[in-house]
Request: fold
Amino acid sequence: MGLAERRAALAFSTEEYPGWRSKFDQAACFEVPVEVAWDELAVDGYADDYSAFFTKVYFRPLAEALAAITIDDLGKDALKAG
Reply:
């Protein structure tokens, strides 16, 4: 990962990810433990597109999946149990 990719990943992690983090917790109805390996998400040559790519490929689907799972108490309990 080059300098441009590191900068783009850092920018996303500090500027956009906190909003996604809140969406995950809101969708799950509790604080969900999520670890992001930013250096593994980064692809050389695509730094300008990280915001769109990370959102579309990783974070929106995760928020939607959490919301779908926790639609009822059974799903909430299952998610909390791991």
User: Anything to note?
Assistant: Residues 3-81 form one domain.
